[in-house]
Amino acid sequence: ACKYHPGVPVFHDAYKGWSCCNKKCTDFTEFLNIKGCTTSSHSNEKPPEAEKPKVDKSKAAEVIEYRPPVNNTPTLERPAFDALQVTLEPAVSPALLEQIKGLTNANEMSSNDDKRIKVGESCKNKACKATYKGDESDGEVCLHHPGVAIFHEGMKYWSCCPKKKTTDFSVFLNYPGCTEGNHIWIAK
């Protein structure tokens, strides 16, 4: 028995496949190795080639001319440099004023709640793993990185510690801080 594709190869948007089945791939070797979707007996006759669309040669000499669109609207002239400037009065709709008042009230309420530090809150300094356990946590030393994380060509490191580089992300996260300071429990 012969397994083959009765359809034609289709190459579209970096995908390769056959018109007779739905298997697609991006690698040409994979495309060549797609198993046939039809089984029948072997034949020594070449399959008929698909008809190619006929090209009308009478239009081959025709030149297509592009004409940009004509803008008939007159343009305003720029005022003189020393012309008087007009102050525009902003007009705010009452509906927008109500929304703004609602937002400021909500922000005031949430900012009052944010000032209390919750037990279990983690320090916001980079690479510090301390959590807030109560007022005694404020006296602890915070070991953190004041720099920024840098990811360059597979390497991960802190800008404040350029000699400590790694390719493993978990090792990078576990680097101890290089600077001592105070904990920051509430993000700014």
From TrEMBL:
Pfam families: CHORD. The keyword Transmembrane helix does not apply. GO terms for molecular function: metal ion binding. Residues 1-42, 123-183 form the CHORD domain. Residues 39-58 are annotated as: Disordered. Keywords: Metal-binding, Repeat, Zinc. Residues 43-58 have a biased composition (Basic and acidic residues). The keyword Zinc applies. This is CHORD domain-containing protein. The lineage of its organism: Eukaryota, Metazoa, Ecdysozoa, Arthropoda, Hexapoda.
